[in-house]
Amino acid sequence: MGRGRQKAKATKQAREIKYYTPSTDLSALERELAQARGENPDHGSDGADEDEYPDDGADDHHR
């Protein structure tokens, strides 16, 4: 491939990368940000009602 064609291909690829806009899942972003703040987006920001790691008694058998 000649230098002109190679440069044109590189320019085309660079332009595609520069202007590429993937679809953004805003609901997933909202959940991630709420989790980072310590909130539970499904049940409000209170979080006092639910235990994040409920004790199911599974550890009692491993003595």
Describe the protein.
The protein is 44% helix and 0% strand. It has two helices and no strands. It has helices spanning 3-18, 26-37. The protein is rod-shaped and about 70 Å long.
Topology, please?
Elements: H1 3-18, H2 26-37
Can you give keywords for this protein?
63 residues, mainly alpha, 2 helices
Largest sheet: none
Number of continuous helical runs: 2
Poorly predicted runs of 5 or more residues: none
Question: Taking Cα atoms only, what radius of gyration do you get, to the nearest Å?
Answer: 25 Å
SSE-based structural type? mainly alpha
Tell how many strands the DSSP assignment holds: 0
The proportion of residues in beta strands is: under 5%
Q: Please give the oligomerization state of what you see.
A: single chain
- Helix content range: 40-55%
Overall average residue pLDDT: 78
Q: What is the molecular shape?
A: rod-shaped
> Can you write the helix and strand succession as a string?
HH
N-end to C-end Cα span: 69 Å
Short description:
By secondary structure, the protein is an all-alpha fold. The chain has 2 helices and no strands.
